[in-house]
Amino acid sequence: MERTLAILKPDCVRKQLIGQVLDRIERAGFRILALRMTWLTREQAEAFYAVHRERDFYPDLVEFMTSGPCVVMALEKENAVADFRALIGATDPAEAAEGTIRHQFADSKQCNIVHGSDTVENGQKEVAFFFGEGEIVRNRVGVM
Ligand code: ATP
Ligand code: MG
After folding, report:
1. What CATH number was assigned to the domain covering residues 2-135?
2. What is this structure's pTM?
3. Which ligand is nearest to the CA of 60?
4. So where are the chain's domains?
5. pLDDT surpassing 90 at residue 140
C-alpha cells in the first residue's frame, strides 16, 4: 500500500466542489486515512511549494494557496501516487485528459482544484508535512 497527499485547493472550496471531488476520489478506490480543513499560512504555503521558489509563478501560487481554506488529506491505495496523478490529470486543465478531475472542474493552470504528490518519496514527506502518525487512521478494509 502506498500513500499520497491530496489538497483540495482554495478554488475547490470556493466553488463548493469538496463533495463532488471527494466522490471522484473515493469512487476511484482511494481510502482516506486523514482529512482536515485548514487555511494555510504564508509560511506553510511557501514551505510546501519550496521546490518552485525560483519559478515566476511562485509568488502568485503562494498568494492563491493562502487565499482561502483548503482541505488536506492523506490517501492510501496500491500505486496511490501515480494513480492519483492520473485521476487528477495534467496541471493545465486545457491539457488534462477527458474524465480527469482537472478536466472536469479546473479553470486555469493556477486554479486547478487539486494537488497530488508527484513521487512516492514526496508523498511520504507531504503526508508528514500535514499529519502526525497519530492522526492517520489505521483501520483497513475488513477491519472497520
Ligand atoms: P500540484 O503540485 O499542485 O499537484 P502539479 O504537480 O500538476 O500541481 P507543479 O508544476 O508542481 O504542478 O505546479 C504546482 C502548482 O503551481 C500547480 O498546480 C499550479 O497551481 C501552479 N502553477 C504551475 N505552473 C503554473 C503556471 N505556469 N502558471 C500559474 N500557475 C502555475
Ligand atoms: Mg507538483
Report:
1. 3.30.70.141
2. 0.95
3. 1
4. 2-135
5. no
